[in-house]
Amino acid sequence: MLHDDQDPLSGAGIDTLAIRAGIHRSAEGEHAEPIYTTSSYVFGSAAEAAARFSGDSPGNVYSRYTNPTVRTFEERIAALEGGEAAVATASGMAAILSTCMALLKAGDHVVCSRDVFGTTSNLFGRYLARFGVAVDFVPLLDRAAWRQALRPETALLFAETPSNPLCEVADLAELSALAREAGALLVVDNCFCTPALQRPLELGADIVVHSATKYLDGQGRCVGGAVVGRREHMQEVLGFLRTCGPTMSPFNAWVFLKGLETLRLRMEAHSRNAQALAEWLQQQPQVERVYYAGLPDHPGHALAARQQRAFGGVLSFQVRGGRDAAWRCIDATRILSLTANLGDAKSTIVHPATTTHGRLTPEQRAAAGIADNLIRVAVGLEDVEDLRADLQRGLQAAG
Ligand SMILES: *Cc1c(COP(=O)(O)O)cnc(C)c1O
User: Fold this and answer.
1) pLDDT tens digits, residue range 294-348?
2) 91: CA distance to ligand 1 center in Å?
3) 26 CB burial (10 A radius; 0-12, 13-18, 19+)
4) Residue having the nearest C-alpha atom to atom 4 of ligand 1
5) Domains of the chain, start order
6) Are residues 342 and 314 in contact, defined by beta-carbon separation less than 8 angstroms?
């Protein structure tokens, strides 16, 4: 539908798509998207029921696999990412699991960035490995390691950029070319940038996965996810969902639809606040180093400036002193929420070495560059002066 010249949204801008893509009004003519809280659907006749079940007639059968509110979300996120289709899932992890279950089989091999969300590493390393899918983890920016890890049976490359918490930026066009050369699919977790700032499919990725829980919602209300890509792949992912059931609820889909309407405005405001805080942190005597791709001296700055529309809302910094100084800094803040979540209007602060990356061995943490004095801030939408004053309280306590 999106490629049809008759479609008024064909060629529409990102804000228009974020607000209007996927709307199918019912006979009531409602303006806002309704929430269809129904598990099943009735048919006009036995013949129609048979046609729906066989797939000969389009339409809903059961909300484990299709629901009008969820479909609106799917069409909207597909339009925003520039993909042919999308499948909504119960969480971000369900999006990644469904992609793997739909497109991998025993004997396949995966190359995954070492610097992905911790639970993603666990999914590949602990669970998929049990089912005969081999995985190699490589440092996100180590081109030679990606190439060396390839095998004839490599079916999938998985990356997340920018990385958490050090904001390393990978060249998606280059990874796409490598995947094509290997005959593998490139799957990109676009959680940190969202399509408002980065569109991996345009850079050659095959599939985008999302934790909608983060910026797509934007207000920390619901858990959900999405997979976006070519229709043939999404058919497979939907098949897995239909059979195994990690489905998004219609209420959550509705919350995410409301979130998407303000996605670009929010992402730009998150980025603006993060940039201001990163520049300010760099000037503070208690700060050893700041990691944010919006800073000109960040190694990923030029690439991020090319690949992304803005630098996003997550930054991290090292305070002088060790773990204790970092903990004192975190404990002295009074506005920032101490939580590992991100992508929320509320700013959050966390100590990666003892929380999100606490399960790694000290050696693994050192290799990944997660120092004991590192603090991550997911910058929200509060007044930046207040955030600065709060971090100032923290830094004073640290030093
Ligand atoms: C949170 C997160 C996930 C997992 O999403 P859930 O919705 O919590 O299941 C995956 N990838 C990234 C980058 C995340 O931040």
Assistant:
1) 999 999 999 999 999 999 999 999 999 999 999 999 999 999 999 999 999 999 9
2) 8
3) exposed
4) 92
5) 14-260 (3.40.640.10), 264-398 (3.90.1150.10)
6) yes
Of 117, 140, 188, the residue with max ligand 1 atoms within 8 A of its CB, to mutate for a pocket test, comes to: 117
**Verdict on whether the full-model pTM lies above 0.90:** yes
Could you give the CA distance from residue 67 to residue 61 in angstroms, rounded to a whole number? 9
- 83: CA distance to ligand 1 center in Å? 20
Q: Which of 211, 216, 217 to mutate to test the pocket of ligand 1 (most atoms within 8 A of CB)?
A: 211
Q: Which atom of ligand 1 is nearest to the CA of 224?
A: 7
Instruction: Give residues with Cβ within 8 angstroms of 204, minimum separation 6.
Output: 172, 173, 176, 177, 179, 180, 186
Residue 57 Cα to ligand 1 middle (Å): 35
Give the pairing of strands 154-160 and 185-189: parallel
Under a CB-based contact definition with an 8 Å cutoff, are residues 371 and 310 in contact? no
**Residue entry with tokens 């993909």:** 83
Nearest-CA residue for ligand 1 atom 6 is 92
How far is Cα 160 from Cα 139, in angstroms, rounded to an integer?
A: 11
**Which ligand 1 atom is at minimum distance from the Cα of 342?**
15
**CB within 8 A of 17, min separation 6: which ones?**
9, 76, 79, 80
In this structure, the chain runs to a length of 399
Helix axes 263-282, 384-398, angle to 10 degrees: 40
